[in-house]
Amino acid sequence: MAIIMDGKKLSKTIREKIAKETEILKIKYGKTPKLAVIVIGNDPAGESYVAGKEKACRNVGIESVVYHKEETVSQAEMLELIGELNSDDEINGILLQMPVPRHLNKDELVDKISPQKDVDGFTPENVANLTNSRPAMVPCTPLGIMELLEAYEINPEGKRCVVIGRSQIVGKPVASLLLAKNGTVTICHSKTKDLPAVAREADILVAATGKPKMVDDTFIKEGAAVIDVGISRVDGQLTGDVDFDKVEKKAGYITPVPGGVGPMTVACLLENTLLCFKRMQNENGN
After folding, report:
1. DSSP letter string over 114-129?
2. I need a surface site. Which of 3, 12, 89, 204 has the fewest CB within 10 A?
3. Backbone torsions φ then ψ of 151, nearest 5 degrees
4. Which of 246, 190, 252, 171 shows the shortest CA–CA distance to 216?
C-alpha cells in the first residue's frame, strides 16, 4: 500500500511558518503583505474558491482585497484596473481569477500584470525565467507539487518523471521544475501513443488531465510516486485524475483528492504573496 502524501498537513505547517514571518515583517515595516484578487462575473464555484483564498490570507495575516467586475466588463476597463494595481505600492500581489469571460483577451490581461506582482507565475517574463532556470515567480500548483516531493524526500534527480498534461498552469511548469532538479522528464498529452506504457516508465508520475479516474493501475510502475493534480465532481464526490483505490495498491506514494495537491496550491499562493512583499521591501536579493 502506498504512503499517503498529506498535503493538508504539510500546508498547515507552511501556513504556520508564513504567519510567524508575516508578524515579524509587520513589526519591522508597519504593514503586512497585500493581495489583490480580480473576479469577473458571478460563478458560484469561483466565488467559493475566492472566499477560501480570502480566509487563508486572513489566517496568516495577509490582507486581501477583491475587485469584483461584472461579466460585461470591457478589455479596456480590465487593462486599466490592472495598470492601477501595478502602480499601487500597497499592493504586493495580483491574482486574476480564471476563467475569464470569452469576450476578454486573457493573454493580454495576464501580460499586463507586473511580473514582480505575478503571484500565479503566468506572465511571459516569469514563464521564460522558469524555463531557463532563473529566479521566477513559480505557479502555485507546480510549486506545491515540488514542496510535497521534498517533504517526502522524493528526489527527482536521475529519476524518470512523466507529466500527463501540457498546460501552462501545471504541465509545462512542473516539467521545468523537475528538469531543474535533474529529473529525466517526459510530457504526455492527448496525442501520445500508448500512454499507459509511457506512464509505467515513471518513478514520479504527475497526472494533470482533468479527466476523472483516467489513470488506473495499468499506468503505474510498482513503487512510483503518483501526484494527482486533477479535481472533478462526480456524483457529488470530489474525484481526481487517478483511480485512487486501484493505484494505491501499486504505488509507493500517492496524493489523495481532496487533501493532496489542493491545499498545497493555496499554501503556495500565500508563499508567493509573501515573497512579492519581501522583494518590494528589498528583504532578499532574488
Report:
1. -GGGBTT--SHHHHHH
2. 89
3. -60, -35
4. 246
Query: What is the largest distance, in Å, between two alpha-carbon atoms of the chain?
Result: 57
H helices present in 155-199, as ranges = 171-180, 195-199
Q: Which of 34, 53, 172, 250 is catalytic?
A: 53
pLDDT band at 40; cut points 50, 70, 90? very high
97 is catalytic: yes
pLDDT by residue (tens digit) across 257-271? 999 999 999 999 999
Domains and CATH numbers, the chain: 30-117 (3.40.50.10860), 140-262 (3.40.50.720)
Contacts of 261 (CB under 8 A, 6+ apart): 7, 141, 144, 145, 148, 227, 228, 229, 255
Q: Which listed residue (34, 118, 120, 243) is catalytic? A: 120
